Amino acid sequence: MKPFAIVAALALAGPALAEQAVVAPPEAGSVSRADGLAAWDRVYEVVSHPRCANCHVGPDNIPMWSGPSYGTARKHGMNINAGESRMGAEYVPCAACHVQRAQEDLADNGPNEPPQVALAWQLAPVEFQWFGKTSAEICAQMADPERTGGRDWVALAEHLAEDAHHGGFVAWGWNPGGGREPAPYDLQRHIDDVLAWGAAGTPCAD
């Protein structure tokens, strides 16, 4: 695979805070298994973090409230259920509170305000359940294109950049506002780690 780069302009908290995410895959096989596993450990730190895992839930379609500001993890308040649509079409639409905003209008949410992004708020597909899953389970999931919407490791990295480019949930994870704890590292490091893990052959710990 020849290296290439995709540059995405990211509006993280409005036009004043723009960054660039570069997707530049290493040659397949150019990263050692040990380095690939170390990269995976950092990927898992991100995907298991509340900013990511709280909306990557299972077939009960109920988002979670967890993280340092919540204490004990619990189901989303107000009896919210996103339904099989994963966006609340059957009950109360997620967008009733998580209002979609233009990127240039995104502002720092207060601690008691529902987060908002520039895409329609929804849960990740149930095949991408992360909440409560182990590192080994998520690693096997992300290494299997049948469970990632047909995406290989390069396409997963491109998905991260593309979502952030549109002011979506990925960029929000590192700039959630309201005193919420952001995901660890940063978007570029996360993309680089996904690519390093992929170039190592998507290894999972034994």
Automatic annotation (TrEMBL):
<keyword id="KW-0479">Metal-binding</keyword>
<dbReference type="InterPro" id="IPR009056">
    <property type="entry name" value="Cyt_c-like_dom"/>
</dbReference>
<feature type="domain" description="Cytochrome c">
    <location>
        <begin position="78"/>
        <end position="202"/>
    </location>
</feature>
<dbReference type="InterPro" id="IPR036280">
    <property type="entry name" value="Multihaem_cyt_sf"/>
</dbReference>
<dbReference type="GO" id="GO:0009055">
    <property type="term" value="F:electron transfer activity"/>
</dbReference>
<keyword id="KW-0408">Iron</keyword>
<keyword id="KW-0732">Signal</keyword>
<dbReference type="GO" id="GO:0020037">
    <property type="term" value="F:heme binding"/>
</dbReference>
<keyword id="KW-0349">Heme</keyword>
<protein>
    <recommendedName>
        <fullName>Cytochrome c domain-containing protein</fullName>
    </recommendedName>
</protein>
<dbReference type="GO" id="GO:0046872">
    <property type="term" value="F:metal ion binding"/>
</dbReference>
<feature type="signal peptide">
    <location>
        <begin position="1"/>
        <end position="18"/>
    </location>
</feature>
